Amino acid sequence: MVRGLLARYLMDFEQVAAVLKLGSDDVRWLVSTGQLKEIKLCGKPRYDSRDVFRLVDAYKRTQGRGKRHVQ
Hints:
Blueprint: E1 10-11, H1 13-20, H2 24-32, E2 39-41, E3 44-48, H3 49-62
Antiparallel strand pairs: 1-3, 2-3
């Protein structure tokens, strides 16, 4: 049983794309740039759920940097 989002489980490519709401090209780009690590299991790519959610958190933290705030 998975206990919350911090539990570790492996996701397939389609699950990652659905969680991130990205197209397949964007997910491939994240992998090719090293932002998302691919794990080969029986020759099939899998992704650690914790890595996916860390990626989301990293983008949340950097969102808005460099933008000017209007007051």
